[in-house]
Amino acid sequence: MANIVIVTETGSDITAAEAAELGVELVPMHVAIGDVTIDDGTLDPAEMLEQCRQLGVLPHTSGSTPADFSAVFDRIHEERPEVQILYIAYSAVTTCSYQSACAAAEGRDYVSMLDTGHVTIGLALVVRKTVEHLRENPDITVEGLLEWSLAFAKRVRMGFLPGDLGYLRAGGRLSNAAFVGATLLRIKPVVELLDGRLVATRKLRGKMAACSLDFMDHMLAGAPADTSTLFFVRSCGLPLAIQQAAERRARELGFAELRWYDTQDVITSHCGPGSFGVAFAVDE
Q: Is rRNA processing there in the keyword field (predicted)?
């Protein structure tokens, strides 16, 4: 393989086990639970929410710091000084992580970076497909891989149904929260990543089981999808029946590879329990 190491944040919801399988390095994001701050992925999300419930607080997230990135960049460079690092970033407009990476990369000519404009499984999809492209093209330059990855990121579509709108509002990440209005009974907003921002694009009415399928149909109603891969994401508490129905619908739509991700602490802090999302690429 080319001497390129890919780095991304834990907000991709890529687990440590998957990162090891892909050869990807993870930089931690963070969650504050009252007066205690933890690294993303170090506490079971259901336990995190229970601790917040007991304290009467909502979790608050923060991005990766320059020190977080410096630690990862230093370790890679010390262990493999010949490699180039490609940082595939969590949406820069939603967090300080990208700016932290820029600060940490000063004076390091072996670090390149790109802003995917995605979070959670949208980012995971870009990372995984970039790794696959690197493995298929081991002689590619880091400039060539960055160009390919950025072009692929522009093809990715990602959206989700939040399980509890209160978490999303509290996090301040929803660009047009006024669109959603009051939290009405059985109204569920579709939240999509548009130009790197979380935007509520549609309101669905009904139970989560029915809304989840309507949501999938909405997401796939635009440009023709590349049906090779569909990523799902779920937060703790999403009923199994909804997951099974989503898989059946995906198979009916012709998707070949289906892959589930679980939200870790940062993403759970934004979407709340019982959330459901999808990510896929549109055809070139």
A: no
Q: Which tokens go with 213?
A: 């399928």
CA angle 72, 75, 77 (to 5 degrees): 105
CB-CB contact of 137 with 171 (8 Å): no
Task: Give tens-digit pLDDT for 23-45.
Answer: 999 999 999 999 999 999 999 99
Over residues 225-246, the pLDDT tens digits come to: 999 999 999 999 999 999 999 9
- Asked if residue 258 lies in contact with residue 228, where contact means CB atoms within 8 angstroms, the answer is no
- pTM to 2 decimals? 0.94
Where do the domains of the chain lie, and which CATH numbers do they carry? 4-28+63-154 (3.40.50.10440), 32-61 (no CATH), 156-281 (3.30.1180.10)
Report CA-CA distances (Å) from 81 to 73, 106, 194, 225, 282. 10, 17, 37, 40, 37
CA-derived radius of gyration, the chain: 18
3-state SS assignment for residue 35: coil
User: How many residues does this entry show for the chain?
Assistant: 284
Structure tokens at 47: 């336990």
